[in-house]
Amino acid sequence: MHSETAKNIRESLKADCSKCFGLCCTALNIVASSDFAINKPAGTPCSNLQRDFRCKIHKNLRDKGFKGCTVFDCLGAGQKVSQDTFSGQNWQEHPEISKKMFSVFPIMEQLYEMIAFIAEALTFNISPSLQDKLNKQLEKLQGLSDMEADSILSLDITTCRLPVNELLLETSEYIRNELSSKDSSISIEEQCRGVDWIGKNLQGKDLRTSDLRGAYLIAADLRNSDLRGVDFIGADLRDANLSGADLSTSMFLTQMQINSAKGNDKTILPDHIQPPSHWIN
Ligand code: SF4
To answer: So which residues are the signal peptide here (predicted)?
Structure first.
């Protein structure tokens, strides 16, 4: 696959709530916390969800204690389940499908997350053999997401993740090595994977090509830091301050991670990530 096609796939993975039957507001379990004002069991519609599947407090989610709703991003899994898997039938008019639909959604979400990461990996300048393996994996995942509901429900998602994780790791190491070997000014921070930098002052730090997989960066001060070529897969960026930081060529950064962080108009993001509205307002 041409990297431009992969880029288009990655950029097309966006939620379109107008084509979804409020699945994230219904299918998922919500536990009351500073991010959600209420408890809500999985399979029960949120009390703010209207008959038209729109949120009645959409414009005031943060003020009303539902910050988590502004962070969430299904990457389009919601409209895929609503429009494709269940052919546009909604759970209000067809309550007999609701249980199955709500069970398929979190699986589709995970498949879409994997598709997004693999498509992103294919946008990098990688070896033909790695490209070939990624293409095969992407095709496989797309095939799984197109299956009928019962087949999706029978998937062992943990087993699906294993080859994906291996390929993403291989891609990450390949790219970070390439970048650091071409630029002698890059000094790689050792053993950053899963590091606990909660609340740490990293202002202005050069972290280029670091492996921050699974790192705890909650409320870390990353203002004006250089985060190019950093692998962010699974990193917790809640309330991390990214104002003025350069993440332009970071890897495997998600919209949800960015939505949960702080930043400003000086933060440089990869093409497939949009600055959240709460950074500007
Ligand atoms: S508050 Fe709105 S966006 Fe959040 S779960 Fe409820 S209906 Fe959905």
So the answer is: none
- Determine if ligand 1 sits within 6 Å of the CB of residue 69: yes
**Could you tell me if the CB of 49 is within 6 A of ligand 1?**
yes
Nearest to 74 by CA among 96, 104, 46: 104
Is residue 66 in contact with ligand 1, taking CB distance under 6 Å? yes
Is 21 a pocket residue for ligand 1 (Cβ < 6 Å)?
no
Percent residues over pLDDT 90 in the chain? 87
Closest residue CA from atom 2 of ligand 1: 55
Mean pLDDT of 196-210: 96
Q: How far apart are CA 269 and CA 237, in angstroms?
A: 14
Question: Could you identify the atom of ligand 1 that is nearest to the CA of residue 61?
Answer: 1
Whether residue 55 contacts residue 49, with contact meaning beta carbons closer than 8 Å, is answered with yes
Q: Is the pLDDT of residue 123 over 90?
A: yes
CA angle 6, 118, 258 (to 5 degrees): 95
DSSP three-state, residue 216: strand
Percentage of residues in the chain having pLDDT higher than 70: 98
Cα dihedral across residues 28, 275, 76, 152: positive or negative: negative
Contact 81, 89 (CB under 8 A): no
CA-proximal residue: ligand 1, atom 1 (nearest):
48
Supply angle C-alpha 163, 169, 173, rounded to 5: 150
- Mutate which of 66, 67, 72, 105 for ligand 1? The one with the most ligand atoms within 8 Å of its CB, which is 66
Place of tokens 């053993």: 191
Tens of pLDDT, residues 39-81: 999 999 999 999 999 999 999 999 999 999 999 999 999 999 9
